[in-house]
Structures are given as C-alpha cells and as structure tokens.
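Q: I'm building a small set of examples for a reading group on sequence design. Run inverse folding on the following structure and report the sequence directly after it, with nothing in between.
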C-alpha cells in the first residue's frame, strides 16, 4: 500500500466518494526513510496559547478534506470506554449496550482432550465429541496461508489439530504435530492461571481463607467506631462493653498485621505505568505496551465476588505473561470489606506473587460506571472513607508480602472534591504502598480536562505529612514511602515529563494516551515525538494480532476472539493523528481534528473510524472473516448501515 508517489485515490467503506490522497512531501514519513526514523521537535516549536483553537486539533491545509455533513460531526468518540462505563446519550451518540458476539461453531466438534493428537479422553466412547482425526480434518475449512504465528513464536501450537494454519506444523502422513523443543523451552508463558480443581473448590466455597476468617470479625467490630478515623459524619458512641469486646478481638491475633514496611519493595519513581483498562487492557495489549517500554502494567478491573465464585471469565483478567514480570499488578473492585479481603487472599494464595508474579493488588475507587457505583464499589467508596480504610487494612493484612495500592478520583461530585482529606487518611491509616489520583470527579467522568493543579496540591500534602512525621518521630523514617501517582490526559512525552517535574508526583499513570498511541512509552524515554509511519503502525497491529493468537488460540473460536479485541483496539488507535500533519503541537487528547487524509493510502485507512475498515485491517493478519463473526462497535457513532 505504501510507496506511492503519484496522485492516487482511496475509497473507504464509510464514504462513496473517492478521496484524493496524493501526499505532500513529508521527509519524516517518506517511504524511503528508515523504519525507525523519528521526528524530533525542540522546545522552541511549542505553540503560543493563541495558536491553539480550543478542542480542535489543527491539521496542515494540504491534508484537510472538505467539511463533513452534520451526521459525521455527531459521530465523535466517547471516552467513557477507556476505563469502563458510560451514561445514557442520544441515539446517534450512545453506546450499543446490548452487544452480543457470536461464537464460531465447527461443523464437526472435535474433543479438546485429543486435539494434540496424543491425549486420551476420560469419557472414551461415551464422549459426545468427535475423536476421528481424519473425519475432523476433512470437515474443517481450508487452512489459512502462511505459517502458524504461534508455532513460529513459541515452537508449538496449543490449539493442536484445531489450528487454522495446521498445514505448517502437522505431518499428515505420520499423523504427528511438530514441536520445536528449543523454542518451546525458551518461550514465555502465561501465569496466574488456576486449574480446574481450584476452580471447583472456589465454586463450592471451600477455598481456605484463614487470614480473612481471623481479621474480618475485628474489622466488623470497627464499623461504627471512631478508632480508625471518621468521615465528618456523626457516628454512634461505642459502649464500654463494645470497646472491651473490640480489645478482646484485637488480642486474638496470632501475628500482627503486615505493614507496608514489611512488604516487598515497590519502586514507582518515574516508572512508566499503564493504567487498568476495561476491555482493551487485555493481556495482548499489555504485552504490546511492554514491548514499547512500559515498566508497570495492570490487569483489567476484576470484580471480587466473581473471583471468589471461581468465575472462569473473571479469572481470565488477572492472567498475565512472563514479559510483564516484574511490574504486574491486579486491580479489583468490591463493595464490601469481606469481598475485597477474601479476594485478595485468594489471589495472593492461588497466583504467583512477588518478583515472579503479582507485584501489588490495587483497589479500584474511581470507576464511574453506574452499575459499579450503585453497588457501592468503585467511586462510591470515595464517600465512605471509614469503610475504605477498613477494606484496605484487611487487604493489607491478608496479602502477605504483596503491597496494597489504591486508585481514586477527586470525589464523586464536581462541587465537592474530597480527595485531599481522603489521601491524608490513607497515608496515616490505610497501610497503602501507593495512591493514584485521577484528576476528575465521578460526575465529570472523562469530560473536560483533568485538574492537574488539584493533583499537585494533593501530592504536596503527602510530602508535607512525611516531612512533619520525620521531625516528630524519627523511627518512622524506616517506613517505606507512599508513592503518589497522577492520572489524567497524558498524551505525549511533554505531558508526562511536565507532570513529574512540575506537579509533585512520583510518576504518571497513562490510560487513553496509550490506547491511542501505545508507543507513548517510547516517546517518554526518547523525550521526543515519534512520527510513526503507516508501515510501522501496521507492524504494531500485526504484533497485537500475533500476541492475541497466542492468548486466545489459533482455532476458529480463538481467531474470532482475537479479531473482536483487535477491532476494539483499532476503535481507539484510529483516533491518532500523525504528528507530521499537525499544525500545532503538542497534541491534546481532548482535541478533535477536522476530516483529514493521510500522507499515503495506508495512513488514511488506519485513521478510518468505520468498523468495517477495522475488519478489513484484521483480515491482513487473521485471514478472511468467518461467516459466524459479528462485530458491533461499542459506540453507535462508529456504526454504519449495511449497504442494501
């Protein structure tokens, strides 16, 4: 697609008229330039305030297209997707909330137990699935061209005979699947899986949680007391008998609760951190961000109760890859102390921890989605400070050597931010190793800009508290630092470095900025904008697809899953406007461009917001779409009626 110099045209799915895409000469993205060529911009190129139109990403005139009609103007993306949730909107701008994804169905269903060609099915002749290899292979659609990406990467294919690239690692005459032992021995692997037996124990509520059983009665006894601080709300005065009972419970500890000073060391000083992201923050995407230089990644938000119930889909969320180690954290959400405490103990008991596994367990206190908020979890905990402290104390006690961290917002309402008071309590009473503050309220969700002045003021409170503590209590110097992380609107290396150098934070957690351009971590290291060519961006998409096939599988079901999540990723990456065609820098995440064309045909395609173009891109790496595949984008703004 690239390498065109003559005047050309492209017809994307979302428009009947062909677009002229003859590119103006741009040295940094020319087809003859090296693949890793970078566009370096000095500080003298920063625009004045007057140079920027509020909310508009200004495009160089030669890349502008005619003004769109009203329907196209309304079709703007909604950022509630990035970290979960959304509100009711007008039809043309709302979410497709009742999305259903069809599963690929085989004509002949082959037994999972024998898909490797050597396994034995415990059901034998009573098994309802097919065991005849020749019959199954003859019923499959024709193999996809090329070599199996998973076999090529790790030396064997876990999908076995179900693989859609079966010809590349199967000797039909011998009936044998090939294995490259050297590659297999050196390949990375996925960790934090639970086996079927553990899942059954969880489902039967028989998983042992001895620490939780001991600490929860004590935490319950603190519910109406002022012993761990108060929220400014009136509480009942404890009776003498209640106080004595609480003292008795406190005396029953077999061992004292762990404090952050007794946890594994957590060093987040200027670490490049990827935020927990719902749907798009899956394992393949996190691997991609690690490839681009991220230091710390987090799982998608997992709900504590389904974790305790052994839900297969929920336990897929804390799964990680060895390339994420060290520096992988698991985020959970819970509305009740017992849920959070038991889920933390189960996670740290059933999964690998420390340097070879989970770095920290993060409590989500910022999710604005209505379903989570109304249940009392997520950002609802911001208005229940004492309850939040109890949850964190309990999590900290049962997590063993794994530190506990927390992510919050400024408050639930724009007019009543309470994060400053809450952070002071968390530092003194919460036993947390790190606090992340998103510079928006729950009411604000992802609208308007993040309030970094408020983040800076809150960070200064944490610093002042530690300076005062060192003066009064010298022994507290041994207590490890509570890291303070800022979050909100980080979209370029300038944003990141400006925050860590001028806003009192130890680091910045990146969310939507990484979804739109995952190489932001590379930019931070280089301290310069990277004008990625369309070819480089297509290579990034290929890498995501191959990571996805490793994770979901190379059978039809796995390919469908991979294609779906690739399209979800493309729904964000299509919003990237190449640095080389911007008229004003730095780019801002809230700015929206007018209609534009790329410097070549491929760049224009990668900027399309039509989901059918995303499916076309997926076919480059995942083969033709299966007849059962159906993708409906989260936002109706990205959907178009099928031509009749």
């Amino acid at each position: 697609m690239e390498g065109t110099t003559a005047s050309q045209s492209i017809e994307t799915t979302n428009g009947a008229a062909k677009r002229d895409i003859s590119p103006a000469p741009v040295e940094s993205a020319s087809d003859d330039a090296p693949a890793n060529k970078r566009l370096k911009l000095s500080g003298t190129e920063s625009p004045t305030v007057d140079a920027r139109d509020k909310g508009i990403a200004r495009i160089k005139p030669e890349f502008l297209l005619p003004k769109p009609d009203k329907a196209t103007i309304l079709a703007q993306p909604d950022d509630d997707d990035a970290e979960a949730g959304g509100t009711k909107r007008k039809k043309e701008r709302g979410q497709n909330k009742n999305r259903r994804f069809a599963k690929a169905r085989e004509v002949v269903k082959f037994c999972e137990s024998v898909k490797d060609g050597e396994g034995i099915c415990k059901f034998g002749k009573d098994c309802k699935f097919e065991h005849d290899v020749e019959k199954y292979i003859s019923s499959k659609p024709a193999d996809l061209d090329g070599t199996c990406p998973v076999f090529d990467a790790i030396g064997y294919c876990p999908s076995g005979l179900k693989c859609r690239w079966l010809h590349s690692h199967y000797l039909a005459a011998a009936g044998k699947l090939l294995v490259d032992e050297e590659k297999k021995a050196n390949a990375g692997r996925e960790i934090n899986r639970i086996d079927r037996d553990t899942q059954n124990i969880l489902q039967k509520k028989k998983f042992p949680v001895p620490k939780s059983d001991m600490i929860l009665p004590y935490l319950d006894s603190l519910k109406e007391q002022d012993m761990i601080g108060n929220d400014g709300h009136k509480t009942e005065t404890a009776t003498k008998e209640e106080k004595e009972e609480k003292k008795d419970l406190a005396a029953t500890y077999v061992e004292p609760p762990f404090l952050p000073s007794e946890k594994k060391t957590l060093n987040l000083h200027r670490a490049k951190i990827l935020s927990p992201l719902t749907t798009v923050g899956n394992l393949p995407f996190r691997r991609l961000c690690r490839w681009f230089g991220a230091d710390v990644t987090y799982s998608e938000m997992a709900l504590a109760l389904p974790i305790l119930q052994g839900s297969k889909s929920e336990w897929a969320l804390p799964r990680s890859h060895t390339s994420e180690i060290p520096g992988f954290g698991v985020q959970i959400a819970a509305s009740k102390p017992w849920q959070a405490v038991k889920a933390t103990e189960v996670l740290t008991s059933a999964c690998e921890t420390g340097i070879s596994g989970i770095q920290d367990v993060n409590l989500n206190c910022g999710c604005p989605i209505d379903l989570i908020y109304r249940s009392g979890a997520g950002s609802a905990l911001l208005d229940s400070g004492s309850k939040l402290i109890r949850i964190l104390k309990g999590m900290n006690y049962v997590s063993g050597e794994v530190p506990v961290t927390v992510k919050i917002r400024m408050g639930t309402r724009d007019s009543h931010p309470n994060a400053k008071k809450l952070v002071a309590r968390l530092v003194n009473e919460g036993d947390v190793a790190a606090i992340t503050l998103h510079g928006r309220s729950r009411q604000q969700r992802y609208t308007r800009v993040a309030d970094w002045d408020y983040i800076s003021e809150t960070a200064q409170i944490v610093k002042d508290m530690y300076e005062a503590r060192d003066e009064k209590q010298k022994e507290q110097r041994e207590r490890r630092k509570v890291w303070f992380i800022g979050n909100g609107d980080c979209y370029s290396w300038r944003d990141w470095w400006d925050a860590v150098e001028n806003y009192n934070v130890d680091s910045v957690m990146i969310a939507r900025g990484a979804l739109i351009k995952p190489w932001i971590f590379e930019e931070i290291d280089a301290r310069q904008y990277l004008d990625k060519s369309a070819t480089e961006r297509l290579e990034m998409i290929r890498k995501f697809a191959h990571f996805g096939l490793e994770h979901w599988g190379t059978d039809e079901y796995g390919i469908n899953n991979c294609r779906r999540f690739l399209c979800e990723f493309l729904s964000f990456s299509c919003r990237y406007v190449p640095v080389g065609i911007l008229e004003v820098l730095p780019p801002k995440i809230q700015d929206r461009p007018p209609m534009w064309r790329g410097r070549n045909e491929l760049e224009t395609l990668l900027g399309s917001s039509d989901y059918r173009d995303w499916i076309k891109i997926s076919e480059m790496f995942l083969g033709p779409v299966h007849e059962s595949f159906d993708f409906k984008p989260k936002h109706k703004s990205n959907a178009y009626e099928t031509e009749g």
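The first strand starts at residue 9 and ends at 10.
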